[in-house]
Structure formats: C-alpha cells, structure tokens
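Q: Here's a chain of 333 amino acids. Please give me its 3D structure as tokens.
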Amino acid sequence: MDQDTKTPPAFAVEHLTVRYPSERGWVQAIRDVSLQVERGKLVGLAGESGSGKSTLVLAATRVIRPPQVAVDGQSFINGRSILNLRDAELRKMRWSTFSFVTQSAMNALNPVMRLRDQMRDTIRAHDRSYQPSVADARAREVMDMVELPSSKLLSYPHQLSGGQRQRAVIALALLLRPDLIVMDEPTTALDVVVQREIIDLIRRLQNDQGFAVVLITHDLSLLLEVAHHVIVLYGGRVMEAGPAEQLVENPLHPYSQALMHSFPPLHGAVSAQVGIPGAPPDMVSPPPGCPFAPRCDRVMGICRTTMPLLQTVGQVDVACHLMNDQNREVKTL
C-alpha cells in the first residue's frame, strides 16, 4: 500500500481471510477479500445473511479478535495498519477516527443510563480536557444533526421509539467527528416509513459532513438508492463490485441479478419478487468452484470445479465464468 504518493483511503482491506473454529473444522467466513473506501464516499456491502458482510468489517476493525477467529491479510484506516496496532492505540482510534452504528439500536444503548450520560461517557473516554458543559453542547449539536430535540438527551432508551433510538445511535457515532462510520443494518426492524427517513438522514449527513461510510445490508435495492459504490458478497467472496448506477442498469453476476429481484424497490412501480432457491453454502466445506454454482440457473461445468477470479468488465469487477470470452454467448443480460 503506497502511502507516500497520495492520501490514503479512509478504509482499505487487502486480501483479508477470516476463519472461525467449530466442532466440524474451520468455518471459512471470508476468503481473500479486498476493498477500498475513499474519503467522503458511501460504500455498500450487500448479500444474504451469512455471506460475510458483518464479519468482514468487524474483523478488519478488530471488533472480533482471536482466539474466536483467525485473520490473515491487512486492513488500514487512514493508512494505519489496524490488525498490527497495539490495543491502546486502537482504543484511541475507536469513535474518534472510526465509529459504529450497530444492528440493534436498543441493545447498543445502555438501558439504565440517560442518553446525555452515555454521550458524556463517550467524550470523557477520549478527551482528557473533558468538561460537562462542553460535552453537553456537542451532544446538542449531534442531536440537531439527526433531527432529535435536545430534550431527548434526558430520556432513557426505553422512552424513545425505534426510529428515535436509531437516530440516537447515529448521533453517538457522530459525536467525536470520525472519518469513517460503519453502519451495520441500520434500518433492521424499522417499518418502511421510518426506514426511508433513516436512509434519507444517512445520505444527508454523509453529504454534509463528508465522512466515509460502510453501509452493510442484505437489501441490494436499498443500497443502490444511497451508495456510491456497491460490493456484493456471497460465500465469503466478492461476486461483483462497481459503481451503484452500473449495478442498477446492468448487474452482471447471476447472484447480483437474483438479489435485485428479491427485494422491492423503495420507490417506483410494483413488481413481482422472486426468491433465490436453495441455501447458502456450508463454509466448513465450501464448494470447490463458484460458491453460487449450486443455486445458479446458468451454471456450467467449470463453475462447479474452478473458482472464478475477479475480472474487470467496463467499470465493474465481477467473478463469474460467464464473463470469459468463450462463454459470453450463453449470458443473457
């Protein structure tokens, strides 16, 4: 990674592999994945449950660590190697350089503390010159950013609605002005109206504040609404990656196409939704070829025996044997 010739990206992963021990052997959760999130950009990770989305980011940021997992490869935030960083240095970077919006807002907030006290604790942990009045002023600022009245700072989590709790968690993530925010399924368990509000809020905050975002979701249609760049994962590998508009107009991988037809669009005409038959692969003993081959309706013999490599087709990187010149005639887009 050349850090001298240009400003490093906000977040970069290089050839990351993550394995979990189990009674049946090592679960190969992530297999040789690389990605890059430029400053000020929103990059989405899409895929079904179990595809490796959360594991990829949580392992790369050392939220999950050995002995629970074995990690190979490298990850960088603002050019700093995270996997080799001392624990004390990593603690300083958390929330001040990168922060998280977790899947369950209720579980992310301390149920016996008022929201104001949780924000005070976050600032106190990172600022030796901590003053309650200054911390409260910053808390009011971030509450205004997420469109919550400052009076809610005196509330306990159970006194807030689901949408308000999600906004409060986003406010906590913004508190120390991080360069990168990881948002893991930020609209899970919210109704469609509140989901739309939260997505619009994320888009506005990202544009206004200029931080980088990694947005994790199983809903590809949602990602295509807000992301600059989308990465589709399946079986712990990248199936397709490229600009969001390219995936909207012409998804190349059969898995990306299947995901597109599995979720209704957030706006526009109503269309029939089609589920993906079959089940995700067993990652203790994944298929030797393409992990999607057992569920793919365009599978060829080579798909079952040989892992396809990522190759560039236009502006998109795609791992599919259908992209090979000799196989293009059997692909109907």
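Q: Can you summarize the key feature?
A: The radius of gyration is 21 Å.
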